[in-house]
Amino acid sequence: MSKKSVLVGQSGGPTTVINASLAGVLETSLASDKIENVYGVMNGIKGILDETIIDVSKEDKDEIHKLLNTPSSMLGSVRYKLPSYLDDDTDYKKIKEVFEKLNIGHFFYIGGNDSMDTCNKINEYFKHINFDCTVFGVPKTVDNDLILTDHTPGYGSSIKFIANTVAEIYQDISCYKKGKVTIVEIMGRDAGWLTAGTKLASLVNNGPDLIYLPEVAFDMESFLEKVDTIYKQKGHALITISEGIRDSEGNYILTYSASGAKDEFGHMQLGGVASVLTNIVSTRLHLPTRSIELNLPQRCASHLASLTDIEEAYNLGKNALLFSLDGVSGKMSALERVSSNPYEVKYTYVDLTRVANSVKEVPLNYISKDGSQITNEFIEYALPLIKGNISNLDDNGLVKFAKFNKNFVKL
Amino acid sequence: MSKKSVLVGQSGGPTTVINASLAGVLETSLASDKIENVYGVMNGIKGILDETIIDVSKEDKDEIHKLLNTPSSMLGSVRYKLPSYLDDDTDYKKIKEVFEKLNIGHFFYIGGNDSMDTCNKINEYFKHINFDCTVFGVPKTVDNDLILTDHTPGYGSSIKFIANTVAEIYQDISCYKKGKVTIVEIMGRDAGWLTAGTKLASLVNNGPDLIYLPEVAFDMESFLEKVDTIYKQKGHALITISEGIRDSEGNYILTYSASGAKDEFGHMQLGGVASVLTNIVSTRLHLPTRSIELNLPQRCASHLASLTDIEEAYNLGKNALLFSLDGVSGKMSALERVSSNPYEVKYTYVDLTRVANSVKEVPLNYISKDGSQITNEFIEYALPLIKGNISNLDDNGLVKFAKFNKNFVKL
Hints:
2 copies of one chain form a homodimer.
Chain A: E1 4-10, H1 18-31, E2 35-41, H2 44-49, E3 53-55, H3 61-66, H4 90-101, E4 104-111, H5 113-128, E5 134-139, H6 155-173, E6 181-186, H7 193-196, E7 210-212, H8 220-234, E8 237-242, H9 273-285, E9 289-293, H10 297-300, H11 307-325, E10 331-340, E11 343-351, H12 352-355, H13 376-382
Parallel strand pairs in A: 1-2, 1-4, 4-5, 5-10, 6-8, 6-9, 7-8
Antiparallel strand pairs in A: 2-3, 10-11
Helix pairs in contact in A: 1-11
C-alpha cells in the first residue's frame, strides 16, 4: 500500500484543550513512517473549499508541542453547514479534488456536535463514491454534551476554571456581615454540565448555596423563598445558574421582567439571565445584588487547565490517528470510564452516525430532588476530570502560547 | 517598658493578597518576645465597637501561613466612616475602652484610601488624649490609586489575572475569519491602572487593539472609526476599557444610549459600560459584538497571584510591626522603587495625614498621545509586579484556603 498524507482541521467553539488533540494527531503523524506528509486546514471545512491549507511538517516541533497548553484553535475555526450530498454535491466534489491533489488518505476533524455531523457527511460521501480515505472525528466541547463518550475533552479544564473561580468568588463575598446576593451565570443552553461543575467549589468552602440547571424547570417563587432564607441566615448568598434555565412552560428565564413574571412585551434585556434574576431579587426581596457572567474565560482559561484533560485530549487525537492507520473509518475517538476511584479510562471509538446531532443532558441522579443543588454522585463523576496541575506561565508571569509560521501549500 | 498586645483589622474591598499582609503582621507579632498577645478584630473598625475580637494566638500556625495565598479578608471587612472626634467622640471613647481592656499597644489597619483615613483619625485622637498606642496603616487596593507608595499590594496579582485573561480571550476570539468586536470592561472608576494592565497581554499575542482609561476623555466618533478600521483589517477587534471612562464633558459613557449619543432620558442600563459600547458598535457599525466584564475575579483570582505581590504584601505588614515596635506611629507602610531593571524596592513609611483622601491617577506618559493605547514606559513599570509564579492548588486541582477557628475574646 502506497503512503498517503494526513489532513486535520478544527471546528466549532474553541476550548482550552482542542489544540492538545491537534498536537496528538500532528505529533503522532509526523513520527509515523506510514505517512507521506501532514497538512492542516485553516478554518475547518471552509478552508478545504478555499484551499487554505498549511504544511505542518514545516512548523517548529517545539511549537507543535506547546499546543498542549495553548487555548483556542490554532488552525482557526468556522461555522459552516455542509448540505446533504444528495441535494448538492458541489462542496463534496471540491473536497475530493483537494484531497486527491494532496494525496490525503486520512482526514481528522476535531470538534463538537455539528463537526461530527460534517465529519459523518464526508465519510458517507467517500463511501458512496468509493474514495479511499479514512475519516475520523475527535471530540471536543466544554459543554460535555456529546453522547457515547464518558465526557468530552475541554470539559475538565472548563469546570476546573469555573469551580476554582466560584470558590474564590465565594471567599470574596463572604467578608461582609451584610453582603450581596451574587448570581453567577455559566455557559450552557440545553445542558447544565458546566453549571453542575460549580458544585466542586463546595469542596473548598461553603458555596454555592443554590445551583440551577436547564434540565429541571426553574420555579421563581421557590427560588426567591430559598434566597431569602439563605440571606437571612448567612448575610450573603451565592447562586450559580445555566444561561439556558427555563420555567415549567419552557420559557427562558432570560425573558422574564423585573417583577419576576414572564415579560409579555418581550423587552430586550441588555444583560444575560444572571442580571435578569438579580433585578428580580432586588425588586422582590429588596436585597443588594451582583450578577457575574463568567463568559469566554470558561473556554480558554489555559492557565488553569486540567492535566488529565490535556492528556486525554492528546490521546484521543493520537488514537484517532492510530486507529485510522489500521483502516478504521467513520468513527469518533471516545472515552469509556473503567472506574472513578481510582480513575481509569479506556480509549475507544464509536460510530459517527450515532454521535451526530444528539445531546447528552445531565442525568437526574446528579441533581437534588428539589432541583436546586447537585449530588455527590456528580462530584464522584467530575472530580477526577480536573486533576493534575500544569502551568503555562513563563518567567515574566505571562502565559506562553504556541506560534505557527503557517506555510500555505499551492494546489 | 511593659509588654503590650497587638490588634489588627482589615477593611475595604478585599484583594488577592490582603491576607498576605495580615500574615506578615501576625507571624511577626507571634514570633516577637516584645509582644504580650495578638488579636484580630472582625469586620474592621466596626468589630471594635461591637467587641467581635479573636485571639489569634489560638489559631493553627499552618493556617496562618496559608493566608499568604488566600484571597478575601480573613478578618472580614466593613464600610464604616468614623466621624471626626471633634464632632462626636462616642466611637473613639469605645475604641479606647476596648484597647485598654485588651492592653493594646499597637494597632494595625490593612486597607485602602478610606481605611487610611480611619487609621489617621484614630491616631489623631490617641495623640489628642495622649493614649499610648502606635497606629499603623498597611496599604492594599487592586486600584493602585494610593499616593506616596510606588504601587499597592493587590495590584500586581490583579493585573496578572487581567493580562493573562485578556491574552487568553484574544487567542480565543482570533480563531474565526469573521469574528466579533469584543469589549472587555475592567474595574476602575477614577483611575485606569487596572485597565492599563491589559497592555501586558500584548507581550503574549497581539491584543488588545485599543485601551481606554478614565484619565483621558473618551471620544465616541474617533473610537468608532478606529474599531471599524481594525475590524476591516483583522476580522476581529479586542478593546479594553475602564468602567469609569467619560467624555470630554465628564459624562460617563455608561449613560450613553445605543445611538452613541448622551442618553438625555437617563435610561437605566442593565449591563455595564462594555455592554453600552457594544450596543453602540452594533447599531452604528453593524458589526457582531460581545461584551465581557471581568468582575470580581479581578480582585480574588488567587490561583494566579503574583509571588512578588504576595511577598511585598507580607513584608509591608511585617515592617509595619517592626517600625511600630521602634515607636513609630501615625504612618503607612510603603514601597519605594529603587530600580525597574533589575527590579528592586525599598520598604519605608509615609505620614497617614498625607496619604488619606488622595487619588493617584495613571500618569500621562503611560498613555499614548491619542489616548487609545498604553506606552512601553507603563510596561517597564508594571511587568516586574506580576513576576513570580506560585500555585495554591491541591492534589484535586482545587484552590486551598486558610481556615480560622475564630476564638472570640470576652471583654
